[in-house]
Design a protein that fits this description.
By secondary structure, the chain is of the alpha/beta class. It contains 16 helices and 17 strands. Helix content is about 40%, strand content about 20%. Strands 4-3-2-5-1-6-7-8 form an 8-stranded mixed β-sheet, with helices on both faces. The chain has a 6-stranded mixed β-sheet with strand order 12-13-17-14-15-16, with helices on both faces.
Length: about 450
């Protein structure tokens, strides 16, 4: 503790709860794109991020799963791995992992104490207070650079890329999973604008891997990679993947890259996970081929096979059958709607969903309504929640064109009561699905798994 605090000043945060409360107290400062405050913090801390090797992951969907694949394979191959992700499903410490384990509460408290005076100092300048995510990012860098020293850090973007706080780093390889309509209030309302923001993580001379498919988004990535003299590995061009089917709870696909081909099996469900795994594999191939990473086939295959990521087509043990999936935008809904009938057999599909108020809900419903028999609309316990009655009006407006003839729509504002209702109407041969914002998934998951110490947040 003392060593981490360093300066010997009185520590204002005495417990883990106080540390988390302080970091979360910065939430009202919002999401403020720009790197000035994180640059100032890093400068004052001696540029600790420059001592680390990062794999920087951006994209509209699949960032968390891609980070999970990378972490699992690298760890299986004998490397120590830091993993920084958001939002978290269970506990604030989830976002700072080392070899799959959360940061210890006392370490987080000590590092928060180290950052506290720095944050107050910057808050008193024209730059204004660092935000919650900026402080979390700085804390992650300190943890990896000065406490646990991983061989590599898997580094997930918070929002966008170009102006995201995580973009302070220069990685050894970058990944842009895909581009879709999400956070359009911040990133722009066209695929070109969103792709421009994501492409901002491409750095001079640093190879970049992507499964982006839309022509206008691809051209944006090409232009950025060309201007940075960065090699672009694009799915469908420099590498490819082809599904070999589903069997014994595993999806198998053939990866074909510029250096070799490999048949890979993953336990993660959903067609979109093939793209995420293929993108992760291409990034690993770059590390193996050009950066002397030792990645034996046996370890690579085992790493992919054992990858798990909470809240992504995750089946909760018990009866009735309940599947959780954090699809919360149109592209996520499209993947979910195509994957559910392929991976599960059921008589009726009962969907419980809740959303935040800044999403494309109409497009979401167009994809999901055709497969749903009963729709229960609720609200996450979160400040930006979407009113369930507003969701009902959107769903009703699309009923005639997209929904099953006998679709039943129920509004229950209290998510706990909505979950009980979902369980009560789901028979043995039915399937219950909980989807929408990860803030709802986090609460439902902790309730179903009886995790009383669950926290949640961005």
């Amino acid at each position: 503790m003392e060593e981490i605090n360093g300066a010997g000043a009185a520590a204002p945060l005495h417990t883990y709860s106080e540390a988390v409360d302080w970091i979360n107290s910065l939430i009202p400062f919002g999401i403020r794109p720009g790197l000035e405050r994180i640059e100032r913090m890093m400068e004052r801390l001696g540029q600790p991020h420059r001592r680390l090797k990062f794999i920087h992951v951006a994209g509209t969907n699949g960032k968390g799963s891609t980070c999970a694949f990378l972490t699992s394979v690298l760890k299986q191959s004998g490397y120590s791995v830091g993993t920084f992700t958001s939002p978290y499903i269970t506990k604030f410490t989830n976002r700072f992992q080392y070899n799959g384990e959360d940061i210890p509460e006392e370490t987080l408290t000590a590092l928060a104490n180290r950052l506290h005076p720095l944050v107050e100092e910057i808050a008193a300048t024209p730059l204004g207070s660092p935000t919650m995510f900026e402080v979390a990012t700085a804390l992650a860098i300190l943890y990896y650079a000065e406490v646990c020293y991983p061989d590599v850090v898997v580094w997930e973007t918070g929002l966008g890329g170009r102006m995201d706080v995580t973009n302070i780093v220069t990685p050894i390889v970058s990944i842009i999973t895909n581009v879709g309509y999400d956070h359009t209030d911040v990133l722009g309302d066209t695929l070109e604008k969103i792709a421009f923001e994501k492409a901002g993580i491409i750095k001079p001379g640093v190879p970049v891997v992507s499964c982006v498919s839309q022509p206008e988004a691809v051209s944006m990535l090409r232009a950025r990679a060309l201007s940075c003299k960065a090699t672009l590995y694009l799915a469908g061009e420099q590498f490819a993947y082809e599904s070999r089917g589903i069997g014994e709870g595993m999806q198998t696909f053939t990866f074909k890259g510029p250096f070799r081909s490999l048949d890979i099996a993953i336990a993660m469900k959903g067609e979109h996970q093939l793209a995420n795994a293929a993108g992760a594999m291409m990034a690993l191939e770059v590390l193996r081929q050009y950066m002397a990473f030792i990645l034996d086939d046996e370890d690579v295959l085992a790493g992919f096979r054992h990858t798990f990521w909470a809240g992504r087509l995750e089946e909760i043990p018990g009866s009735p059958r309940i599947v959780l999936d954090g699809a919360h935008n149109p592209e996520g809904a499209e993947s979910l709607a195509s994957s559910i009938p392929k991976f599960y057999q059921y008589r009726k599909l009962n969907l419980l969903m809740g959303m935040l108020s800044n999403k494309h809900h109409e497009s979401y419903f167009k994809h999901i309504l055709p497969i749903v028999d009963t729709l229960i609309l609720t609200e996450p316990d979160f400040r930006k929640k979407m009113d369930a009655e507003h969701l009902r009006l959107i769903a009703e407006s699309l009923r005639k064109k997209y929904a099953k003839e006998h679709l039943q729509i129920i509004v229950e504002h209290d998510w706990g009561k909505a979950l009980q209702l979902l369980k009560s109407i789901t028979r043995g041969d039915d399937l219950a699905l909980v989807s929408g914002t990860l803030y709802l998934i986090a609460d439902v998951r902790s309730a179903l798994l009886r995790q009383p110490d669950s926290e949640k947040g961005w």
